[in-house]
Specification:
binds S-adenosylmethionine, 8-stranded mixed beta sheet
Length: about 325
Amino acid sequence: MTAPDLPAELKVALDARLQGLSRSDAAERAASISRTYRDGGGSTAIRTETDALAYALARMPATYAAVTASLNALRETVPHFAPQNLLDVGAGPGTASWAAAEAFSSLQHFALLDANNALRALALDLAASSTRLRDIDYRRGEARATLADADPAELVVASYMIGEVGDAERGALIELMWAKTRDTLLVVEPGTSAGYGRIIALREQLIAAGAHVAAPCPHDGKCPIQPPDWCHFTQRLPRSRAHKRIKEAELPFEDEKFSYVVLTRSPIAARPTRVLAQPVVGKVEVTAKLCTPDGLVIAKVSRRAKADYARARRWRWGDAVMAED
Ligand SMILES: C[S@@+](CC[C@H](N)C(=O)[O-])C[C@H]1O[C@@H](n2cnc3c(N)ncnc32)[C@H](O)[C@@H]1O
């Protein structure tokens, strides 16, 4: 499975861009972009080269880690999947394309779409030094227009994107993304209840259109989670020195919370149960919240069942639990 930290080629390319950039300027821009995101303003605040670089330094490690974790879950459930082409919708600095290139050595063609010129320019610059990504085809324009012109791809990804599209247009965008999906569609959103809400609405829309869920759900039925609870996962990622500085943070790592769904055109033969929160390991039992094909279960695995208890102790939030696990 792929590691959650940025690939070496990308780190080097980002570091090279940092030369000559005032760290305090970049930190200020990153803070202002984050504020805009928190206020629901999206990527429109990213206008200049410095903005784009500040965004990439502050957010790319986390969105990369979330996409990588989602692709790892897909690879576990559908190990034979070997896509040759990728369509990255709302690609920004190219994060999901980098993650997909690491996950699938089979990928040869990368098509990226985005409306933001500053992020597109940065993506092209970062990709120029990559052996896999130097020939990416990056179209600038509004998602629905560029998607309508794009060739269908075996793997389509929209990472931290659909939340920037208005509620009224989102359904049509999703329909178009699915129309361009030859095999598998991955959509990742922030792990907030609003992000989960968008994922679950998309999941329902596309199951009604014939899609099957490859991950994280072990079924194509209605999501059994009831509000105020919501389905999300967390991925720990290391913070580089530049990342710490730009985020004005002390900890050498951060935990990115994300919600996601992977949908495929073909039914999945065997779907694993999913661990939905960090299990509590006690002296007498392990308590774990599991999403199973039959619904939500709070499993209690007694220490007396030695082998089962030993296995359950190793479960981590987000893990796929196969029957023999
Ligand atoms: C939060 S960024 C995510 C970028 C990248 N996918 C990632 O995971 O790091 C959202 C991206 O979606 C793009 N975007 C949002 N709405 C769009 C639209 N209607 N058409 C094209 N691009 C759009 C933005 O320009 C921005 O690059």
